[in-house]
Amino acid sequence: MHLKDVSASGHWTRIGDGIIDFTALLLYLAEAGYDGYLSFETHYQRDGSGEAATRDCIASLRSIAAEAGVELCA
Questions:
Q1: CA distance 44 to 30
Q2: Could you read off the pLDDT of 9-67 as tens digits, one per residue?
Q3: How far apart are CA 22 and CA 30, in angstroms?
Q4: pLDDT tens, 47-58?
Q5: Which residues of 11-37 are buried (b: 16+ CB within 10 A; e: fewer)?
Q6: Cα dihedral angle (7, 19, 59, 24), rounded to 10 degrees?
Q7: pLDDT recorded at residue 56
Q8: Taking every pair of C-alpha atoms in the chain, what is the biggest distance, in angstroms?
Q9: 13 has which bridge partners?
Q10: Phi, psi angles (nearest 5°) of residue 63
Q11: Beta strands 2-3 and 39-40, pairing class
Q12: How many CB atoms lie within 10 A of CB 67?
């Protein structure tokens, strides 16, 4: 599953800062028994860096999952 987020105005953004409800998505996947991969497809960049943006997105998704009580594998 590829993950990315977008603002209401159509700009790529950090996961959790856009219009996608990642809490609901993670809860749904957990309830459905999904045990596949989550892949970050970050079109968004932070300070011109895709790597920094991806690291931000990973940290944000981990935080969202922890708050929702959804366990993610490393």
A1: 26
A2: 999 999 999 999 999 999 999 999 999 999 998 788 999 999 999 999 999 999 999 99
A3: 12
A4: 999 999 999 999
A5: eebbbbebeeebeebbeeebeeeeeee
A6: -170
A7: 96
A8: 37
A9: 5
A10: -65, -45
A11: parallel
A12: 10
Length of the chain: 74
Q: What does the alpha-carbon distance between residue 56 and residue 58 come to, in Å, rounded to a whole number?
A: 6
pLDDT of residue 25: 97
Record the tokens describing residue 8, joined without a space: 């209401």
Residue 41 CA, chain-centre distance (Å), reads: 9
**DSSP symbols for the chain:** -EE-EE-TTS-EE-TTSSS--HHHHHHHHHHHT--S--EE-----BTTBHHHHHHHHHHHHHHHHHHHT-----
